[in-house]
Design brief:
This protein is mainly alpha-helical. The protein folds into 2 domains: 194 residues, Growth Hormone, Chain: A (Up-down Bundle), CATH 1.20.1250; 191 residues, Growth Hormone, Chain: A (Up-down Bundle). Helices cover 83% and strands 0% of the residues. The chain has 15 helices and no strands. The N and C termini lie close together (11 Å).
């Protein structure tokens, strides 16, 4: 039987896309703010570079560990609106505690809690959007991704401005207010949406099977996901893409400052250009993937990302460098929502959140590998060699995509 609640979405419900996308922006806002605060925190607590690196690795590791259980929780209990609100509250609370910390280990506990809270968001948000807009998954997930890009672009500007007037401890306390407000809005609007509609609309929010949830059956289904060749190829390819993205975000500012002699303002402009280009690219790529197919858009975006990374290195201090940075951001971020939609289409609906959790577990593993691996490469050879390796990783991701089977039918159970 066709789920008319999912296919005939009322026009006014597109407001949910903006609400969820705004919430996603705040899940990215907090980490982006922390990058600005980290140098001040490190100086006050006397942290070494190794200790700072350990903090960030711990956050990625917490995300890798928590993603799959988060997806399992969403599939087991549903109530995605409540879980999205919980995610935002969960992220805000450790930031409040962070303002009182005076030791590395307390700070590490806080950042790990932030990583866990952030990674509860995606298994709840992505299936909600994809199931409400089945024919426009690429587009609505690109708006969701665009919210993340916007949060990452605005947070450093706001945090930097506040730091001119307040201490970092005051800033982290003030910074929790937007998340608390957005969490309350989602709790009221999405939570009410989940409980006040009739049974057919309830299925739109809670995609769990009508049958009672059983752990043994769930484990069998999870093993089935791990044996799903297309899904695993998409997830591993996305992991290589995240590895490339994380390596670029870590090493591009260092490259601009150390090798090219850019000022702090110039470095900030380049990073903003990267994010703005990604913000523009998402909806374009999402719409094209809905019309032309996921594989075509991903293949072309990955190939062009590799080419533009190499071009960026060769451009040096010329004006072409900024152009290449924009192109890298455009193509690199363009494929993110497309791969999310593609993975969702290869996952049974009853395991929608688990599939998202599995994908983001692999993404977190890729993100945790990148800084250390490319740091070793840059120290052993040159930072240019690290950039060439970044281009190689995105090409590897492209090769994996070639082996994904074309869709034969939609997975609905």
């Amino acid at each position: 039987m066709i789920n008319t609640a999912a296919t005939n979405t009322p026009s006014h419900s597109f407001k949910d896309v903006w609400l969820i996308s705004a919430g996603h922006g705040l899940t990215h806002w907090y980490p982006a703010t922390f990058y600005v605060l980290l140098p001040l925190i490190g100086k006050e607590l006397g942290l070494t570079y190794t200790q700072i690196g350990l903090l960030m690795s711990a956050q990625h590791l917490a995300g890798a560990i928590s993603n799959l259980p988060g997806g399992m929780l969403v599939d087991a209990i549903g109530k995605k609106g409540y879980l999205m609100a919980t995610s935002l509250f969960w992220v805000g609370l450790p930031y409040a505690l962070m303002s009182f910390t005076h030791s590395l280990w307390m700070l590490m506990v806080c950042v790990m809690l932030v990583g866990i809270g952030n990674n509860l968001w995606h298994p709840a948000a992505i299936p909600t959007l994809a199931l409400r807009y089945p024919e426009r998954k690429g587009l609505v997930l690109s708006f969701h991704g665009m919210g993340g890009n916007l949060g990452e672009a605005l947070a450093p500007l706001v945090a930097g401005s506040l730091l001119a007037w307040f201490s970092w401890r005051s800033v982290v306390l003030m910074n929790i207010v937007p998340g608390l407000i957005m969490g309350a809005l989602i709790l009221i609007l999405m939570g009410a949406l989940a409980t006040n509609r009739d049974g057919s609309a309830q299925t739109e929010v809670n995609t769990s099977s009508a049958e009672p949830w059983r752990f043994k059956q769930y484990l069998q289904d999870l093993l089935g996901l791990l044996r799903n060749r297309s899904l695993m190829l998409i997830c591993v390819s996305a992991g290589f893409r995240t590895l490339t993205q994380t390596g670029l975000l870590v090493f591009l500012p260092v490259y601009l400052s150390y090798e090219q002699g850019y000022t702090t303002i110039a470095v900030g402009i380049c990073m903003t250009v990267l994010q703005v280009a990604g913000l523009i690219a998402g909806p374009i790529a999402g719409h094209l993937s809905d019309k032309l197919g996921r594989q075509k858009v991903v293949l072309s975006s990955m190939l062009l990302t590799g080419v533009t990374i190499v071009g960026m290195v060769f451009a040096g201090k010329s004006m072409a460098f900024i152009v290449f940075v924009a192109l890298v951001g455009f193509f690199l971020y363009a494929m993110r929502p497309v791969m999310q939609a593609w993975a969702f289409e290869n996952t049974p609906k009853r395991l929608a959140a688990t599939g998202v959790g599995l994908q983001f577990t692999i993404l977190a593993i890729g993100g945790s590998i990148a800084p250390a691996a490319f740091g070793v490469i840059a120290d052993t050879w040159t930072i240019y060699a690290a950039f060439y390796c970044l281009a190689a990783t995105i090409i590897m991701a492209n090769v994996l995509v070639l082996f994904v089977d074309p869709p034969l039918k939609k997975l609905t159970v």
